[in-house]
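Job type: complex structure
Entries:
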Amino acid sequence: DAGITQSPRHKVTETGTPVTLRCHQTENHRYMYWYRQDPGHGLRLIHYSYGVKDTDKGEVSDGYSVSRSKTEDFLLTLESATSSQTSVYFCAISEAGTALHGYTFGSGTRLTVV
Amino acid sequence: GQQVMQIPQYQHVQEGEDFTTYCNSSTTLSNIQWYKQRPGGHPVFLIQLVKSGEVKKQKRLTFQFGEAKKNSSLHITATQTTDVGTYFCAKHGSGNTGKLIFGQGTTLQVKP
């Protein structure tokens, strides 16, 4: 969707290497989220941010860290990639934390750890 | 717990047949959202339901929120090949952080 981009779109990396995925938005939304999608598991929340330098863990945060130094950028880092982190990663943004807004998702990053 | 259960996991229909997916929660929901993901694509927000017993329509899609606000359904009338994809329901987690907890999704295949 316009206003949110993820990079890279595809990446192959070796086990044990650090990897950083980037999510960039031009909507000035306060809330940003990282999800991973795996067959049979739907979308699972890794980390989220409710403002610059304000982040918190989701349900599957082990092995991941995030940073948000600017409103527009939310970075997801795999500190030491493992094969279990092979997945499709989606970033999403939301205008508000209250109940009335849907997410806008990025196009995703397909990560393969070999 | 915090999960939402979605059934069925897969559904194959002949074009023109109807389709329904169900979303169930063990706890009362403040609201429920629905998303569609086309094959190879990303989830796209469809709608949000807030009120008990609420029914909303988008062309051939009908969304319902249960009276007890513990379940929801998405019904597609006379499916078309463009309806192919995975449909997710999602509920808000605790706190005003906007984080969503997604169901596992129902993948719809439509045979022309």
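Summary: The CA atoms of residues 26 and 114 of chain A lie 33 Å apart. The mean pLDDT of chain A is 93.
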